[in-house]
Structures
1.
Amino acid sequence: MRIIAVVGSNRRGNTYSMVEAACHGLSDSEVELLHLKDLNIESCDGCLTCDRTGSCHMKDDMEKILSRMKVADGFIFGTPARWSLLSGELKVFFDRLNPLALTQSLKGKKAIVLVVGQTEGDEAISIENTVTSVKYFCESAGIEIVDVLVADGCLEPNDLITKKPEILNKCKLSSKKLFQSL
Ligand SMILES: Cc1cc2nc3c(=O)[nH]c(=O)nc-3n(C[C@H](O)[C@H](O)[C@H](O)COP(=O)(O)O)c2cc1C
């Protein structure tokens, strides 16, 4: 069983805490954590070569990640809400998955989605919109979402740990749910 966990925020903050906690629900041999800020991943240049060839001409860390994503069974996608959307970091990553998405290579794989934002109550619609934006990608790529976890009211990087520690356990349970679905 192979699961790839993606942290879609450059800072080591709330998204990182959620994804890390989810990884703790799995054994080390099952999960690989990718903090996008540590990787050299260029923005998609939109050349659409992958439409014709099924592969990407860009030479960066995404080359190896694409082959690992292709054989992985499941994914953990974590992002902060950014203007009611997924983060730019995760969007760049999703764009670069186009060679796999359009060859149906991700079809049937499973994922959990972890989202954090500063808004609360009625205003937390922006976090729900962020979830929707991640769902759009997953649905288009044929990835089945088995669980979604949202943490609201978290602005500063440690807010999740200090104000909402119960969410960390929920993240762990969510990854177990992912594992059981595979
Ligand atoms: C440019 C920008 C846009 C943001 N937009 C939203 C938003 O639409 N809704 C929300 O609830 N929080 C929003 N936030 C707050 C972040 O989601 C929040 O600080 C989150 O905890 C950051 O996660 P991180 O610690 O993993 O980076 C935004 C933050 C930034 C920097």
Note: The domain at 3-181 is CATH 3.40.50.360 (Rossmann fold).
2.
Amino acid sequence: MQEEIEGVMNAARKHHELFENALPLIASENITSNTVRRLLASDLSHRYAEGDIGNRFYQGCEYIDEIEKLTMRYAKELFEAEHVNVKPTSGVNANIAALFALTSPGDGIMALSVSDGGHISHSRFSVPSIRDLKLKNLPFDPKEMNIDPDRMEKEIKENKPKLILLGGSLFLFPHPILGARKAADEVDAEIVYDASHVLGLIAGKKFQDPLREGADVVTSSTHKTFPGPQGAIILCRNNLRDEIDKAVFPGTVSNHHLHHVAGLAVTLVEMKHFGAEYASQILSNAKALAQSLYEENFDVLCEHKGFTESHQIVVDVRGYGGGDAVAKKLEKANIITNKNMLPFDKTPEAPSGIRLGVQELTRIGMKESEMREIASFMKRVVMGEEDENRVKEEVIELRKGFQHVQYCFDGEDAYKFPEAFSF
Ligand SMILES: Cc1ncc(COP(=O)(O)O)c(C=O)c1O
């Protein structure tokens, strides 16, 4: 093989080796089943299918139509949605499309600030600016780590936004959709709920149900707690169908990623069969890891509320050098986390916290006893001044027993680099 190509292949092999031997705790990631991996490597990744089912701009789309039809059907069934669009290629793409569909330049919008858990695409750095929207942040209660429901209702009525954007990236507890709906109805606003982080929990019916609680539109990436290929989905009521569809194609997507759509279909089926059990174990694991870290003397947020009702745990690590230093230290022991701003952080330069997500560890079969072991590894690295390499050896040993993806039909050796097309 060409030397230049071998360099790329070797880096990819090493990446696989790292993740076969690490504890992936990034809250926005997951791993797919092998059927999904096969579809991602299929010819679908080479094709174009601009347009809609039965009305494409290109020939050769007969089977692509079949796949997209099935994907939409499975998504509608699983999420009990009147309409779905499976074309957005990422969560940000879905948010851009939804906000362009439902607002006009100059309209007001309310969303969480990034330090309170909003995603960057909810902030003045992204869609609200490019759409020229007047952004007002939703009031947040840092003690409860949630939107302040009373102030939210009051401020919605005062500010009369056109759109309220709920959901976020730091997302421990269900957001007050019912209250937002009540206030939104008084000022004729629409509610978009960004479920990117919690879609897998919603699929398993273990979190709030945004469509039933009053969201008009749900946007979501499909690869965080929902363990599908990278991409996104929009769910909405039938009355918004045309605006949403137009804002996706041709508004913000030309060709959607057909191999990802096929992978999404398979993951929807996996979640139909295993979603409840998977989501329930995620919640138990998150609580177990939070409790164990707390007992190891970490400053885990929201002890008074049982720490979390999602896949996420937030730890204030200012006492140990801050989020950046702690995440880098943990990485040396093959414990993969990320630094995260906490509500009192004024700038993104020195985040005070780390955010942990247990969805991928759950997907590979880990349960409460492994969570306790991981908390002890983290204590030894962060507080114990222990050589990270010694902990790393134990992490690698622990991972040996967890190489297969669960809650799907074929998860054997799912971290292995695909050396050959033997499938
Ligand atoms: C709440 C939220 N929305 C949107 C996104 C963006 O998703 P994507 O990376 O698929 O564009 C993220 C990513 O982490 C997120 O946390």
Note: The pocket of pyridoxal-5'-phosphate is lined by residues 28, 90-92, 119, 121, 167-169, 194, 196-197, 221, 232 (CB under 6 Å).
